[in-house]
Design a protein that fits this description.
Order of helices and strands: HHHHHEHEHEHEHEHEHEHEH
Radius of gyration: 26 Å
Shape: elongated
Distance between the termini: 49 Å
Number of helices: 13
Structural class: alpha/beta
Largest sheet: 8 strands, parallel, barrel
Helix content: 40-55%
Number of strands: 8
């Protein structure tokens, strides 16, 4: 074998390995982190197609051309290669590496086997489409996670009589400074709940806020909502995760500090803590109150839990100061924002109080794209 042919084989061998490693890295991400069967299947197909294309070459000759000790490139590294800030950077690095390797295979393959080059070109274009879907899904998860961590004011609403009223209601809450809206209504049938959930998801996306469905994981998925909120007596969080997947948020109501710590060991994305005060929409036999909120704040400060915590239950402009004094800077409200009169004044007053509490925006133990401490 003359020197030029051997050099081309070295390039093909190195880039086939690089592309295969990149595809396997992405496949594992889609399979184990996103739990996405379609993306996993696509990436596995690309990997097998690459192996089939490389079957046109004599494997022993490829291996014989390999000279890892003598490869000057093995000693050329950059600082960015040695670290990843989070798992989304693993995806970015793997997609980039795979695309570059496939292009090298195509270009150098043209020098000796045009049919091989054409097959690699086809795989490369298929990968572009798959990588687009994968990276958009990663971005979607990260955006939702960031938004819930940065949220201050969370409103709970019921269904409206018609689409126009629902759109108007969401619009006025957004204008008032609400970050998250949850649709909660046990009085309507499933069809109505689904229709309003679907419409609300479209409107919320247009306004750039989070849209959560109470209790119903199935409707949250079907309506393309940002997530679902469940209570202690509903389906467990990790079972809900199997329904909604990795790219939607799950909120969990908690009523004591043990439940808060247990929530941090699940895949929940945030918690509601309360009830704090008697409210008008739900009745409770026991009110953990602000003492519970102080426990949550202390646990958050000492890293016993890392979930964004929203105080819930009877909170309004007249008592939000007590919530703030407990160290909690996020609230979920219903009655306080139910009236159209004075809505903006009430919401802005609540936010003004809450913003005196710094937010501790840190990844929880179940965070999809965080890198665990080690």
């Amino acid at each position: 074998m003359h020197a030029e042919s051997r050099t081309v084989l070295r390039i093909l061998d190195a880039n086939a390995n690089r592309a295969g490693e990149g595809l396997r890295t992405l496949e594992e991400f889609a399979r184990f982190i996103l739990d996405d069967r379609n993306l996993t299947d696509c990436l596995k197909t690309h990997r097998h197609d690459l192996a089939a294309a490389m079957g046109r070459w004599n494997r022993l000759q490829l291996i014989e051309s390999r000279d890892t000790p003598g490869d000057v490139g093995t000693g050329v590294t950059t600082a960015s290669e040695q670290s990843r800030a989070d798992l989304s950077e693993v995806v970015t690095a793997a997609t980039t590496r795979t695309q570059q390797a496939l292009r090298c295979l195509e270009e150098y393959g043209k020098t000796t086997d045009p049919e091989f080059a054409a097959s690699i070109e086809s795989i490369r274009y298929q990968c572009y489409a798959t990588f687009r879907d994968l990276e958009l899904k990663v971005a979607s998860v990260n955006v939702r996670s960031r938004k819930i961590r940065e949220a201050r004011l969370y409103a709970l609403i019921a269904c409206e009589p018609d689409a126009e009223r629902l759109e108007a209601r969401i619009g006025e809450l957004v204008d008032a400074g609400v970050d998250v809206i949850q649709l909660r209504d046990s009085s309507v049938d499933d069809r109505t709940l689904y229709q309003q959930a679907s419409l609300g998801a479209v409107i919320a996306k247009r306004h750039g806020i989070l849209w959560i469905i109470n209790d119903r994981a199935d409707i949250a998925v079907a309506a393309d909502a940002d997530g679902v909120h469940v209570g202690q007596e509903e389906v467990p969080v990790d079972a809900v995760r199997r329904v909604v997947g990795r790219d939607r948020l799950i909120g969990l109501s908690t009523h004591d500090i043990d439940q808060v710590r247990q929530a941090a060991r699940t895949t929940a994305d945030y918690i509601g803590c309360g009830p704090t005060f008697p409210g008008k929409t739900k009745s409770f036999d026991h009110f953990p109150g602000c003492e519970f909120l102080k426990q949550v704040s202390e646990a958050e400060r000492t890293s016993d839990h890392k979930l964004p915590a929203f105080a819930i239950g009877g909170i309004g402009l007249e008592n939000v100061e007590e919530v703030v004094q407990s160290g909690i800077g996020r609230v979920a409200v219903t009655g306080a924002l139910a009236s159209h009169d004075g809505l903006h004044q009430t919401a802005s007053g609540i936010r003004e109080c809450l913003e005196r509490v710094p937010l501790r925006i840190t990844p929880n133990s179940g965070e999809v794209f965080s890198v665990p401490d080690c």
